[in-house]
Design goal:
alpha+beta, Beta-Lactamase, 21% strand, binds flavin mononucleotide, PAS-like_dom_sf, PAS_fold_3, Histidine kinase, transferase
């Protein structure tokens, strides 16, 4: 089920330099933990978000292929970095720089996922907003796989990995954090 809350992109809240939003999920992406900053930014209480799918805070401006890439990386036991736009319970938008990792048991099997989110760079948000709008158009016209293919072609042409692209955008942002 997708978010149906109304939103106004201008109605935004911003992470501070010391904000650290964390959450954990099971293998299906159902939330099993969220810290106090997760409560503050998502606008949902623990009672409301525990055991709900993480698309609870999905923003309609995020292309589907971005999450396809996330789940493809996790299936390969790789960590994933991304600028993610979220929509909270009150309809407020907030951008984060997320790092999502698998957790293992003693047999080396993946048992859960963990996400750590920090204040994103201004450059990263502005660049990704443009990329995501383009991807949304592609998806509308040709479907999600065409969006994934567009990203893979872009990376190939620019001889850069997804991780490098995201981490560079976060670190290069000389003008500082997004506000
Ligand atoms: C640990 C973890 C954290 C996640 N955090 C978010 C998040 O903050 N916002 C979000 O929209 N999706 C997040 N997702 C992805 C969602 O599970 C889901 O794939 C996404 O919201 C797209 O939902 P949909 O397939 O219903 O469109 C997270 C997934 C994992 C495994």
């Amino acid at each position: 089920m997708h978010t149906t809350r109304a939103f106004d992109l201008q109605d935004e809240i911003f992470l501070a330099d010391d904000t650290l939003i964390t959450s954990k999920t099971d293998l299906q992406g159902r939330i099993t933990y969220g810290n106090q900053d997760f409560v503050a930014f998502s606008g949902f209480s623990e009672k409301e978000f525990l055991h709900k799918p993480h698309n609870l805070i999905r923003h309609p401006i995020m292309p589907r292929c971005a999450f396809k890439l996330l789940w493809d990386f996790l299936a390969l036991k790789l960590e994933f970095f991304a600028f993610v736009c979220n929509l909270n319970k009150q309809g407020k938008t907030y951008w984060v720089f997320a790092n999502i990792t698998p957790s293992y048991n003693e047999k080396g099997e993946v048992i859960s996922y963990y996400s750590v989110r920090r204040r994103p760079s201004k450059k990263g948000v502005e660049t990704c907003l443009g990329i995501y709008q383009k991807l949304l158009e592609i998806e509308k016209e040709k479907g999600m796989e065409a969006g994934v293919q567009f990203v893979l072609n872009f990376l190939e042409q620019n001889k850069i990995s997804w991780d490098e692209l995201m981490i560079n955008l976060q670190n290069e942002g000389k003008e500082g954090g997004y506000r």
